[in-house]
Structure formats: C-alpha cells, structure tokens
C-alpha cells in the first residue's frame, strides 16, 4: 500500500514545476498539467510496451499551441515536461530490470513522433526534439545493457551475451525501432572488422 501511494505521488509530481516553467499560463499547457494529475497508470501490470495516456495530452497541447499564434510558450517546454513525466513513469515500471525503462521511453517517444508525422499534422520543430530524445535513450540503453560486453574475454562474452539475450528476448519493441536496435547492438559488440564474434540476435525482442 505504501508503494502504491509513493507511485501515485511520483506520477503526480512535477505539475508545479511545469506551471512555473510556463509562467502559470491559463492556456492549454496548464490544462495539460492538470489533466496529467488525473492519469492513473497501473504500474503493476505495465511493461515496456505500455503506451502512456500522457502521449495524447502532449499532442493535444501541441495542436492547441500551433493553432493559436498568440500563445508564447516554447514548444520545448511542453515536450520537456512530457519527457520528465515519462522518465518518472519509466522508473516505476518493472523497477530493477536493467535497460527496460529505456525501451519504455523509446517505445513511447516513437509513438509520439509517429503522431506528429501524420498527414495533415503541422508541428514545426517538434520532430527534431523527439528524434534527439530517441537517440539519447538508445545510447543509454546500449551503454547500460551491451557496452560492458565489449571488454569481456571470449568465454565471458558468450555467457553474458546469452544471459542478456534471454532476459530481453520477450521485450516488446516497436517495429521501426526493433530492427534499428538490433543493428546498433551488432555494430557495438561485433563490429565488421572483428571476425572473432559471429552472433545472431534476430530473435531479440518481440513485436
């Protein structure tokens, strides 16, 4: 019961920061903050594939912002607030599982990027922000889960590689991200110039 209360407090936290950041504007960003407080996410049943309802709140705020030229809140403030709340949620989803929070962040950031790319959508400067976040999360994931394998001896590498693959085999990763991650993992731990490591990760991740 204490853990559930802590999760709710963490999830609701940060609203005041957003209001200060946006100058306590009465416009849609404040509504985004207030609506976020109403979100209830069951962290116990959530995993890396969970699509956070806050994604829709961000897109709604962006739609209102770009539809009203009199609004002055910088877009990066709204995206930054959303990103900080997603990081809070990521820490509460399967805590302690190495690298999993970054897959949650990657999946949700890719979803939002797809939303702002839809035909008819017009969100200048938003996509580069999201792409930058995706690159950062990928680096964090690779550094945490796979980079340590590079320094291992052949036997140690094989053992740790199998452990890591088995742990992540059933992780659900968006299609556009799944293939890119596999490619980057291979390039990191088995670069083309190193013929001593022939590995297969085609079965890594689920859709």
UniProtKB/TrEMBL annotation:
GO biological process: exocytosis; protein transport
MF GO annotations: phosphatidylinositol-4,5-bisphosphate binding
Gene Ontology cellular-component annotations: exocyst
Keywords noted in UniProt: Exocytosis, Protein transport, Transport
Entries under Pfam families matching the protein: Exo70_C (PF03081)
Domain Exocyst complex subunit Exo70 C-terminal, first and last residues per copy: 96-194
Coiled-coil ranges from the UniProt annotation: none
Superkingdom of source: Eukaryota
Primary role: Component of the exocyst complex.
Family in the record: Belongs to the EXO70 family.
Name this polypeptide is given: Exocyst subunit Exo70 family protein
Annotated organism of origin: Triticum turgidum subsp. durum
């Amino acid at each position: 019961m204490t853990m559930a209360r802590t999760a709710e407090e963490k999830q609701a936290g940060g609203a005041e920061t957003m209001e200060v950041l946006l100058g306590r504007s009465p416009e849609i960003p404040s509504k985004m903050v207030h609506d976020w407080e109403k979100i209830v996410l069951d962290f116990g049943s959530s995993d890396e594939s969970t699509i956070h309802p806050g994604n829709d709140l961000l897109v709604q705020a962006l739609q209102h912002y770009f539809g009203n030229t009199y609004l002055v809140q910088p877009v990066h403030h709204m995206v930054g607030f959303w990103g900080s709340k997603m990081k809070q949620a990521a820490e509460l989803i399967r805590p302690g599982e190495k690298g999993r929070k970054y897959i949650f962040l990657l999946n949700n950031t890719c979803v939002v990027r797809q939303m702002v790319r839809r035909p008819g959508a017009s969100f200048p400067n938003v996509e580069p922000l999201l792409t930058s976040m995706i690159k950062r999360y990928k680096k964090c994931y690779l550094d945490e889960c796979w980079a340590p394998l590079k320094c291992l001896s052949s036997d140690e590498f094989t053992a740790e590689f199998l452990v890591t693959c088995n742990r992540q085999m059933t992780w659900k990763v968006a299609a556009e991200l799944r293939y890119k991650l596999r490619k980057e993992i291979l390039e990191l731990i088995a670069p083309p110039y190193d013929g001593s490591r022939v590995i297969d990760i085609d079965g890594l991740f689920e859709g």
